[in-house]
C-alpha cells in the first residue's frame, strides 16, 4: 500500500526544519554536499518507563524516501526566500542543484514490530552528506510518533492479558495525520480494530463501533432506541447502557436481546462508558448470565490505559473487550519518544571512514560512532542480549564482551556458538533503490506478538521492569571512549 500517494499526494521534501536547508546550502557552498556520511536514528530511553520499545513507522519512511524530490512549487518557494537585507537566501545554482537531486542513499532499518532498546539504531542512512541531512527531520517525525504509539499499544495489550483491545482515539488525536498514524501504530502494537474508518481504508485495519449516547437521547426512551438499533443492525448489537442508568440499561439490552433471539439473532454484548467499571461490569455479567446470554461480551471504555486496565483486572472486572482512546493515541503520559539522528561517520579525502562522536557532559547523550551493526542473541527462543558492534572487529571471534554504553560496570560475556544470532538492521534501500518489500500490516502486528514472546515477563512488566542487556562490543566501547577523550583534548591537559 502506497501510503504517501493516498495521504499526501507527492513529495514531502519541505517537511523539514529550516536549519536543515541552511546546512544543506552551506554543505553545497563548501563543496561537502556529496561527501559520504553515515547517520543513525536512535532513542536514549524506553518510553513510559517501559522495559521495551516497539519499532514502527518504516513503511511511511520508505514512501517518503521513494518520493523525495523538490517539486516546482517547493523550489519556487525556496527561491523567493529573502534575508533581512533583501538578498535571496539560496542562490539560483543551489536551487538548480536541488531540482536535479534524487535520493541515492543506502538505508538500513529495524523492521516494524521488532522489540528494540535504547542506543540501538532504528534507521541507518549512508550516502551524500546533503541528502542524509535533509532526511533528518522527516525520519524523526515519522519514527518518533509511530514507535511511541506502538509501544503504548503493546503495553495496553499486555495489560489486557489476551482480551481484545479496540482503538477509539480518532476524535482526541492530534490532527488528521496524527489520528491516522496512531491508528496504524496502535494496530501494530496489539489493538485488534480501530474506530477510524479512513485508517481502515488506507491500511486494511478492521474497523469497529456501535452507537453513541446521542443515539439513545434522540429517542423518547432507551428501550425504543435499542429496538431501533437492533432493527438496523441485528447481527452487530452491542448496546451502550450507561446513558441514564447503567443497571436499567442492562435490563433494556437484555429485553431487546430476547427479541433478537426470537428472530434467530444474538446480541453481541453491552458497553459501559462511565462509573465504576469493575462494579458495573460484574453486575452486567451476572445479569447477562442469568438471562441466558453467557456469550454476550461486556465492553468497557472511559479514558482507559494500561494502568487502569491492570487495576480492573486485579479487581476481577468482568470485561472482555477494552475500548482505549485518548490515553493511547496521544501517548498521554509521555507525549514524545525523543529519538535523535546523529552523524556517526564521514568519509575523508583518502576514502577512509572517520568515526564521529557528539561529546556531552551527560553520558547518555554521547552517541555511538562508526558504521556499526546490531545483533540479538537468543537461546531456546529467549532473547539474552543485544550487541552493537563494528563488523571489522567481529571477524574470526567466537565470543565478545558487551559493555553498557552508560554504565561500564555492567558487562556481559557472549559466546557466539552458544546462541542463535539475529541481525536487527535490514537493508531497505541500496543506492536509492528499494530492496525491501513491506509486509502486510497483519504480518507486522503478528511480528510484534512473536517478538514479545522472546522476552522474559520481567522485561515486559508495566512498572519497574528488569533491564534487558544491550551493550557495545568492547572494541567499539574503547573506540568511543578514546574518541571522547580526543574531542575533549584530555591529552593536552
TrEMBL record:
<dbReference type="Pfam" id="PF17956">
    <property type="entry name" value="NAPRTase_C"/>
</dbReference>
<keyword id="KW-0597">Phosphoprotein</keyword>
<dbReference type="InterPro" id="IPR006405">
    <property type="entry name" value="Nic_PRibTrfase_pncB"/>
</dbReference>
<dbReference type="InterPro" id="IPR013785">
    <property type="entry name" value="Aldolase_TIM"/>
</dbReference>
<comment type="function">
    <text>Catalyzes the first step in the biosynthesis of NAD from nicotinic acid, the ATP-dependent synthesis of beta-nicotinate D-ribonucleotide from nicotinate and 5-phospho-D-ribose 1-phosphate.</text>
</comment>
<dbReference type="Pfam" id="PF04095">
    <property type="entry name" value="NAPRTase"/>
</dbReference>
<keyword id="KW-0662">Pyridine nucleotide biosynthesis</keyword>
<feature type="domain" description="Nicotinate phosphoribosyltransferase C-terminal">
    <location>
        <begin position="372"/>
        <end position="479"/>
    </location>
</feature>
<dbReference type="GO" id="GO:0047280">
    <property type="term" value="F:nicotinamide phosphoribosyltransferase activity"/>
</dbReference>
<dbReference type="InterPro" id="IPR007229">
    <property type="entry name" value="Nic_PRibTrfase-Fam"/>
</dbReference>
<feature type="domain" description="Nicotinate/nicotinamide phosphoribosyltransferase">
    <location>
        <begin position="167"/>
        <end position="348"/>
    </location>
</feature>
<dbReference type="Pfam" id="PF17767">
    <property type="entry name" value="NAPRTase_N"/>
</dbReference>
<dbReference type="InterPro" id="IPR041525">
    <property type="entry name" value="N/Namide_PRibTrfase"/>
</dbReference>
<dbReference type="InterPro" id="IPR036068">
    <property type="entry name" value="Nicotinate_pribotase-like_C"/>
</dbReference>
<protein>
    <recommendedName>
        <fullName>Nicotinate phosphoribosyltransferase</fullName>
        <ecNumber>6.3.4.21</ecNumber>
    </recommendedName>
</protein>
<keyword id="KW-0328">Glycosyltransferase</keyword>
<keyword id="KW-0808">Transferase</keyword>
<feature type="domain" description="Nicotinate phosphoribosyltransferase N-terminal">
    <location>
        <begin position="14"/>
        <end position="144"/>
    </location>
</feature>
<dbReference type="InterPro" id="IPR041619">
    <property type="entry name" value="NAPRTase_C"/>
</dbReference>
<comment type="pathway">
    <text>Cofactor biosynthesis; NAD(+) biosynthesis; nicotinate D-ribonucleotide from nicotinate: step 1/1.</text>
</comment>
<keyword id="KW-0436">Ligase</keyword>
<dbReference type="GO" id="GO:0005829">
    <property type="term" value="C:cytosol"/>
</dbReference>
<dbReference type="GO" id="GO:0034355">
    <property type="term" value="P:NAD+ biosynthetic process via the salvage pathway"/>
</dbReference>
<comment type="similarity">
    <text>Belongs to the NAPRTase family.</text>
</comment>
<dbReference type="InterPro" id="IPR040727">
    <property type="entry name" value="NAPRTase_N"/>
</dbReference>
<dbReference type="GO" id="GO:0004516">
    <property type="term" value="F:nicotinate phosphoribosyltransferase activity"/>
</dbReference>
Amino acid at each position: 500500500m502506497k501510503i504517501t500517494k493516498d495521504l499526501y499526494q507527492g513529495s514531502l521534501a519541505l517537511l523539514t526544519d529550516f536549519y536543515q536547508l541552511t546546512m544543506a546550502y552551506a554543505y553545497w557552498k563548501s563543496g561537502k554536499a556529496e561527501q559520504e556520511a553515515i547517520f543513525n536514528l536512535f532513542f536514549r530511553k524506553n518510553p513510559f518507563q517501559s522495559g521495551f520499545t516497539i519499532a514502527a513507522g518504516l513503511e511511511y519512511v520508505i514512501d517518503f524516501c521513494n518520493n523525495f524530490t523538490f517539486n516546482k512549487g517547493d523550489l519556487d518557494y525556496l527561491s523567493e526566500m529573502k534575508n533581512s537585507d533583501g538578498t535571496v537566501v539560496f542562490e539560483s545554482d543551489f536551487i538548480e542543484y536541488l531540482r536535479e537531486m534524487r535520493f541515492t542513499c543506502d538505508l538500513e532499518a529495524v523492521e516494524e514490530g521488532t522489540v528494540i532498546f535504547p542506543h540501538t539504531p532504528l534507521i541507518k542512512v549512508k550516502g551524500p552528506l546533503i541528502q542524509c541531512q535533509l532526511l533528518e527531520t522527516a525520519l524523526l517525525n515519522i519514527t518518533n510518533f509511530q514507535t511511541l504509539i506502538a509501544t503504548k499499544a503493546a503495553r495496553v495489550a499486555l495489560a489486557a492479558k489476551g482480551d481484545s483491545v479496540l482503538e477509539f482515539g480518532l476524535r482526541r488525536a492530534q490532527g488528521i495525520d496524527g489520528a491516522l498514524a496512531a491508528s496504524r501504530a496502535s494496530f501494530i502494537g496489539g489493538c485488534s480494530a480501530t474506530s477510524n474508518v479512513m485508517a481502515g481504508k488506507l491500511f486494511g485495519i478492521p474497523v469497529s463501533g456501535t452507537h453513541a449516547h446521542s443515539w439513545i437521547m434522540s429517542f423518547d426512551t432507551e428501550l425504543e432506541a435499542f429496538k431501533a438499533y437492533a432493527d438496523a443492525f441485528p447481527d452487530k448489537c452491542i448496546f451502550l447502557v450507561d446513558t441514564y442508568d447503567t443497571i436499567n440499561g442492562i435490563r433494556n439490552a437484555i429485553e431487546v436481546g430476547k427479541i433478537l433471539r426470537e428472530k434467530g439473532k444474538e446480541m453481541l454484548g453491552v458497553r459501559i462508558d462511565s462509573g465504576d467499571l469493575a462494579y458495573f461490569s460484574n453486575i452486567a455479567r451476572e445479569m447477562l448470565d442469568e438471562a441466558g446470554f453467557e456469550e454476550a461480551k461486556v465492553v468497557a471504555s472511559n479514558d482507559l490505559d494500561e494502568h487502569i486496565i491492570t487495576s480492573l483486572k486485579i479487581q476481577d472486572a468482568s470485561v472482555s473487550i477494552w475500548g482505549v482512546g485518548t490515553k493511547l493515541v496521544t501517548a498521554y503520559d509521555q507525549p514524545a519518544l525523543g529519538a535523535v539522528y546523529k552523524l556517526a561517520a564521514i568519509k575523508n579525502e583518502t576514502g577512509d571512514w572517520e568515526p564521529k562522536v557528539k561529546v556531552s557532559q551527560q553520558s547518555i547523550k554521547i552517541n555511538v560512532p562508526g558504521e556499526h551493526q546490531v545483533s540479538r542473541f537468543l537461546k531456546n527462543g529467549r532473547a539474552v542480549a543485544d550487541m552493537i558492534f563494528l563488523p571489522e572487529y567481529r571477524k574470526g571471534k567466537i565470543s565478545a564482551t558487551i559493555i553498557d554504553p552508560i554504565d561500564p560496570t555492567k558487562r556481559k560475556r557472549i559466546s557466539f556458538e552458544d546462541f542463535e544470532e539475529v541481525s536487527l538492521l535490514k537493508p531497505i534501500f541500496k543506492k536509492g533503490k528499494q530492496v525491501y518489500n513491506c509486509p502486510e500490516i497483519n504480518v507486522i502486528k503478528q511480528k510484534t506478538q512473536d517478538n514479545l514472546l522472546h522476552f522474559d515477563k520481567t522485561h515486559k512488566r508495566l512498572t519497574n521492569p528488569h533491564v534487558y542487556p544491550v551493550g557495545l562490543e568492547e572494541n567499539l566501547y574503547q573506540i568511543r571512549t578514546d574518541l571522547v577523550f580526543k574531542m575533549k583534548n584530555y591529552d593536552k591537559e
